[in-house]
Amino acid sequence: MPIRTIKKILQARVYDVAVETPVERARSLSRKLQNSVLLKREDLQPVFSFKVRGAYNKIVHLNEEEKTRGVICASAGNHAQGVALAATRLGIKAVIVMPQTTPEIKVKAVRALGGKVVLHGDAYDQAAAEANKLLDKHGYTYIHPFDDIDVIAGQGTVGMEILRQHTGPLEAVFVPVGGGGLIAGVSTYIKYLRPEIKVIGVEPVDSNCLQAALKAGRRVMLPQVGLFADGVAVRQVGKETFKLARKYVDEVITVTTDEMCAAIKDLFDDTRSINEPAGALAVAGLKKYIERSGIRDANLMAICSGANVNFDRLRHVAERAEIGEQREAVFAVTIPEKPGSFRRFCQHLGRRSITEFNYRFSSADAAHVFVGVQTSDSVERNQIVSSLEAKGYQVLDLSGNEMAKLHIRHMVGGRGPGSGNAGIPDEVLYRFEFPERPGALMDFLGKLGQYWNISVFHYRNHGAAFGRILVGLQVPPRERSQLKKYFAEIGFPYWEESANPAYRLFLK
């Protein structure tokens, strides 16, 4: 057993700047997963990440000559904030090299904490190379974000707190993995005192450097890494961290972007806090472990490692969370292009909650509809496909299609067929608002599609109190007064957009 590492964890100086974060039970998630889900809330640290522990423990143990030279580090953001805070507290100059892809909230936080920021490269490894150049040029003291025994010891205090705060049975602890500093420290300490507890690493499927190293039996360099979970976007696990992780980590689970988004939503539902993708990584892995193993009534703990996320990223998170939780299915359905077919298709969907509905007239024979449907699980998604196919529709399940989810759903449409400015004959365009409630969209479609052919349709459920629809109809001029009367009977606010220049440029 690495007694030296255990001693360093026990002697680590972290509480000058860090706090002992609580372990909380996630009540909603525990009910849903039929296990006791415990959260180690490292997102509640002063810099909203565990990284302050290792950074301070390393810097406080520097000798006076090393401190005088100033410190430098490379970081995707959270280690940078820890270094900046520690250096400022100790009166030391700090230079931080960060990838240009680092969320702005982290860059601003580092500057506010007194660090000098240098932006370089698209990922951690490029930033690290630049930091080494500056190190050679100026003689700074390098503070590695993970591959250093003092940094590992500082992160290991998370494991020390876990065992002190939870003394009862514990099936497993799930730990997010980037370069491996946190899981090296936590696994070493937990396995020394409670070897029966599993320590399970969690990585994104596109940044799985520890999983690849364990499989190969040596450290490997990934050709590239995904940037969604920027806090763990590391191409190669550390040398020191791998020595410990290969001994004490039981396994590594990988998760998708959608599964991380779902975990962020789970954490918000339980704690009303918003973790960054890397911060929710452990919860996503915990959920996958339960699904795979079928375990019930066990105590499972996830380390919520950070909450430094740009606010504008939440649009993407919210959109993808439902798919990650398998609560939204996305389909492409081909229907006959004739009056009434749109309405019949809506009737076949039933009173399910619709998250998105996109359609643009393209030919006289068939129409392609892009539709998102709320589901409870993959079983219901498959049932919807079978039901529609039984009615004679061609159905393509796009729920796992990355291009469709990222791009195609926002590009469905385009100009209608026709030469010059002719476009689709007799097309008029209207925008509607209606109260958002289960079945409301289907009621609206059922009423609207009885008399005129629908040539454009766009709807997205934004989670607001009112649904918003853009609809194009083929209505001969002599029937337009009848159309206005029909709209009045529907009773929803509407605006004609036929003269809107955006419509004329992109749809007509």
Walk me through the structure:
The chain has helices at 3-10, 27-33, 51-60, 64-68, 78-90, 104-112, 124-138, 149-165, 181-193, 209-216, 239-248, 257-271, 281-293, 314-324, 341-349, 378-390, 402-411, 440-448, 480-490, 501-506, and strands at 23-25, 36-41, 71-74, 94-98, 116-119, 141-142, 172-176, 198-204, 251-255, 299-304, 328-336, 354-360, 366-374, 394-397, 427-435, 453-460, 466-474, 494-496. Helix 1 (3-10) packs across helix 8 (149-165) and helix 5 (78-90) runs parallel beside helix 6 (104-112). The model has no long low-confidence stretch (mean pLDDT 87). Helix 5 links the parallel strand 3 and strand 4 (94-98). The protein has 3 domains: 3-49 and 149-322, Rossmann fold (3-Layer(aba) Sandwich), CATH 3.40.50; 51-142, Rossmann fold (3-Layer(aba) Sandwich); 326-506, Biosynthetic Threonine Deaminase, Domain 3 (Biosynthetic Threonine Deaminase, domain 3, 3-Layer(aba) Sandwich), CATH 3.40.1020. An 8-stranded antiparallel sheet has the order 14-11-13-12-16-17-15-18. Strands 1-2-10-7-8-9 form a 6-stranded mixed sheet, sandwiched between helices. It has a 4-stranded parallel sheet with strand order 5-4-3-6, with helices on both faces. By secondary structure, it is an alpha/beta fold. It contains 20 helices and 18 strands. It starts with a helix and ends with a helix. It is elongated.
In short:
The chain is of the alpha/beta class. It contains 20 helices and 18 strands. The longest helix has 17 residues.
Which key terms come to mind for this protein?
Rossmann fold, 508 residues, 20 helices, alpha/beta, 18 strands, six-stranded mixed β-sheet
